[in-house]
Amino acid sequence: MVDRAAELLRGASTAVALTGAGVSAESGIPTFRGEGGLWTKYDPVKVSSIDSFLADPASYWQVSKERGNIALAARPNPGHEALAAMETAGRLVAVITQNTDGLHQAAKSRRVIELHGSGRTVECLECGARESRADVQARLDLEMPPRCKSCGGGVLKPTVVLFGEPMPVDAVNEALELARVADVILVVGSSLVVYPAAEIPLIAVRSGARMIVVNAEPTPFDGLAEIVIHGRSGEVLPEIAQLIGA
Ligand code: APR
User: Ligand 1: which atom is nearest the Cα of residue 192?
Assistant: First the structure.
């Protein structure tokens, strides 16, 4: 199946990747669903919706602090690096990601579209000032929830999309545009159960793209995909990259 995936990508003129938390699992960042997923320990609506955040930012930050320590220390794995190599070799035009860990950029992918925002910065809900997440992470032991250093009082919120928040318009528009023109959509490490992000591969397929799914376990879109590889992206993607000369 890896050979067939490589053949499809070799023949593509506009291949686009859509990634989810599974692509960062081998960097040590827990996924949300599936074995050991974050949502098997916490109720996502309670800890990761905008309503629960506004009602009780400290609870959100308690969970986010733990995940932040892991994400900030994480490094790209061979799966991220393979996608960056495919882009450099001209075999992939962009990575659309649901992840907020910044690991695609760290792996030197150049065109990365973050549908769910970035966990690398935080924003004050009062004055709009922004700080790096790393700076804020450093003071979470002393200050919970963290307060804005500029205006002194505002609650800080990571610039990520919480449940109940809209996705960033520019990112959505760019992702939709790519989905419509893609002739191959490579979906990696996503359970494909969260909309509207999961709509992207459906739009691509409806617009004539051929879908490749690389995921550790079955997804709802496997039946729509031309090629399905159940495996770890850190192993499968480098094999594909090598076969296409990336
Ligand atoms: N290689 C490939 N796939 C993997 C690996 C791996 N090493 N490890 C886990 N997976 C798969 C899991 O089997 C699962 O199907 O990755 C998928 C991850 O699914 P989720 O945890 O649901 O992550 P994602 O699809 O990105 O979630 C979408 O939900 O909670 C929100 O905002 C959050 O962006 C997230 C969105």
Answer: 25
Residue that the structure tokens 């009780």 belong to: 56
Ligand 1 midpoint to CA 153 (Å): 35
**Checking DSSP bridges between strand 15-19 and strand 94-97, what pairing results, if any?**
parallel
Convert the pLDDT of each residue in 196-206 to its tens digit. Answer: 999 999 999 99
More confident site: 99 or 37: 99
Query: What DSSP element (H or E) covers 231?
Result: none
Cα(135) to centroid(ligand 1), Å = 27
The finding on whether 26 has its CB within 6 A of some atom of ligand 1 is: yes
Which residue's alpha carbon is nearest to atom 5 within ligand 1? Answer: 22
- Name the residue among 233, 187, 210 with its Cα closest to residue 7: 210
Does 116 qualify as catalytic in the annotation? Answer: yes
Q: How far is the CA of 127 from the centre of ligand 1 (A)?
A: 34
Q: Which CATH number fits domain 36-73+118-160: 3.30.1600.10, 1.20.59.20, 3.20.20.70, 1.10.10.10?
A: 3.30.1600.10
Choose which residue among 2, 33, 104, 187 to substitute to test ligand 1 binding: the one with the highest number of ligand atoms within 8 A of its C-beta: 33
* Dist CA 152 CA 231 (whole Å): 48
Name the residue with the closest Cα to ligand 1, atom 6.
232
Measured CA to CA, the distance from residue 214 to residue 206 in angstroms comes to 19
> Residue 45: pLDDT above 90?
no
Dig out the tokens for 176 from the structure: 């939709």
